[in-house]
Description:
Blueprint: H1 2-33, E1 38-39, H2 41-56, E2 67-70, E3 87-94, H3 100-107, E4 112-117, H4 123-136, H5 138-143, E5 144-151, H6 155-159, E6 166-167, H7 190-200, E7 205-208, E8 213-215, H8 219-228, E9 237-241, E10 243-246, H9 256-260, E11 266-267, H10 282-286, E12 296-300, E13 309-313, H11 332-341, E14 344-348, E15 353-356, H12 368-389
Parallel strand pairs: 3-4, 3-7, 4-5, 9-14, 10-15
Antiparallel strand pairs: 1-6, 2-5, 7-13, 8-15, 9-13, 10-11, 12-14
Amino acid sequence: MKPKCFVSIQKAIVFMVLLVIFLQVFHIYLMLQEGNPIVGERNHISGWDQIMRKIRDAYVTDSSGYYFILPDILGSRKSQSSGTHDVAVATHTTSNNLQNLVQLNERWQGQISISVLTQSHDAEYALYLIWRLHECHEDIQRKVIFHLVFPVWSHKDIINTTPHEIHCDKKLSMKAHYENFEIGELQYPHNILRNLALKMVTTSFVLVMDIDLLPSANLSSSFQTDIINSKIASNQTAYVVPVFETGEGDNIPSTKEDLLTDRNIQPFYINVCPKCQNQTNYKKWKYLRKSDKLQLAFELQWKYPFEPFFIASKSSLPLYQERFKQYGFNRVSQICEMHVAGFDFSVLNNAFLVHKGYKMKNKFYSQKDVDHHENRQRYEEFKKVLESSYPDSKRKC
Length: 397
C-alpha cells in the first residue's frame, strides 16, 4: 500500500505544477488580449502612474513662478524622431479643444508638439483625454508629444486626480468645464504654452499654430521635399501660410483648388481685424499660376498689425513674450521682434490654414476689451525693450 501512496503523491505534485503553469500561461494570454479596443486596467494604471509621477515631481515653473511646466508627460520625445519630415507643428489648448488634435493629426504628417493647460476642476477630464488620445490612436502615439501646464496652487488637487478606465471604442462621456479665456481666475497663458511646445520639437523648422486651425493636405511633406530638400530654406525667412475661416461644421478644404471653389471660405479675421491679415494679399495669392510644387510666391514687407502664421527655423525664431496673457498682442509681439531682427516674409503658393468657425466681434468673452487694452500697454513697453535689444537694426514696429 505504501508504494501506491507514494505514486499518488507524485502524481498530485505533477498535476499541481502543470496546473500552475497552465494558469500562468492563461493569465499572460488574458493580459495580451487587453488594450484593443479596451485598455486594460494594468496598462491604464501604469500609463496613469507615469503621468502622475511627473505631476508629483513637478518643480519647474515659468518665469513668474505661477505655473508649473511639465514637458513630455508621456516620455514620447526620447523614443521619437522627426522621421522623414524636418518640420513640426507646435500648438496649445485647454481640454475643451483637445479633441481637435485627432483631425490635426490626420492632416499633418510630421511631428506635433502640444501644450495643454489645466487646473483643479478640469484636471480629471484633461488628463483622461490626453491618455485616451495617446492610447487609442496609434498615429498620435507615434507623432505627438504632450506637455502639461497648470497653476502652482492647483498642484495638490491634481495629484489626487482619479484615473478612469479607457474604452477606445466608446464615445467620451465626460465634458470640459469651461471655454477658452473664461476659466475663472486663471488667465490663459498663450505664450508660455507656445514656448513650451516650441522648445520641445525635435525638427529644424516649425509651424506654431492654434489647435482649431487645419493645414492644407501634405503641407509637411511638401515643405520637406520642395523647400528643405531643395536647399532654398533660409533661417531668416518666415514662410507665410495664408489663413482662412469657414463656418462651424463645414467641410474643411484640403487642397487649394477645393478652397478657391468653397463659398463658405473667407479670409481669417475679416470681421474682427481685417488689417491683421490683409497684408497676406489674398487676391494675389488666389490668382497665382497653378503649380504642383510648393514654392515661394512673393515677398511681403511686414508692418503692424500684420500677424501671419508661418513656418520658420526653430533655432532662429525668437521666443514668445510670456508677459502677454488672455487676448491681444501675444503673437504680434513676437512677429514684431522677428521684423526688427531682420526676418523676411515670403508667402507660400499652395499652402494654407483654415480656422473652424467664423470669428465674430460679438462672440468674444466679456473681458476681451479690458485685456486687449492692458496688453496694448505691454506692447508699447516691449517695443522700447526691442530698441535696446537690437540697437543696430533700422527696422521699427
